[in-house]
Write a structure and sequence with these properties.
Structural class: alpha+beta
Order of helices and strands: EEEEHEEEH
CATH class: Alpha Beta
Strand content: 35-45%
Number of helices: 2
Number of strands: 7
CATH superfamily: Nucleoside Triphosphate Pyrophosphohydrolase
Helix content: 10-25%
Shape: globular
Largest sheet: 7 strands, mixed
CATH topology: Nucleoside Triphosphate Pyrophosphohydrolase
Length: 145
């Protein structure tokens, strides 16, 4: 499946994993958003349910075992190139998840993974939409920041 200049949208997942007043974030190792901090997640594999994909992706990228608790949102992530062509198009299912076990370590297609205090989100290089989404969920779910 071609991820860059795809023939059709690609289904993906992302996880908001909160522990105390921290959120689990990864530094992307590949485009789009290479080098930026974001939510762990990735592409749904053929024959895989989206909830199974979010569990697999979080464990692959961070070493943390999680349980999806709630589907938060489904949205399009579309990036165009300078010529106006769709370079990337993902349809993402974002889940609120709880930690089950594991020690955090970066692996798979990320260059770093860590727990970030919610109060420190502004200091990280990340997409503004991701930052806004995390803050919205923290507020919506009445999680202390």
């Amino acid at each position: 499946m071609r991820r860059e200049y795809p023939a059709s949208p690609i289904p993906g997942v992302a996880a908001i994993v909160l522990f105390n007043e921290d959120v689990l974030l990864v530094r992307r190792g590949n485009e789009p958003s290479k080098g930026k901090w974001g939510l762990p997640g990735g592409v749904v594999e053929i024959g895989e349910k989206v909830e199974d994909a979010v569990v697999r992706e979080v464990e692959e990228e961070t070493g943390i075992s999680i349980q999806p608790v709630k589907l938060l949102d489904i949205f399009d992530s579309i990036l165009w190139d300078d010529a106006g062509r769709v370079q990337f198009h993902y349809v993402l299912c974002d889940y609120l998840c709880e930690v089950l076990a594991g020690e955090i370590h970066a692996s798979s297609d990320v260059s770093d993974a860590k727990w970030v205090p919610l109060k420190d989100l502004e200091s990280l290089e990340m997409n503004s939409g991701t930052r806004r989404f995390i803050k919205k969920i923290v507020e919506q779910e009445s999680i202390t920041e």
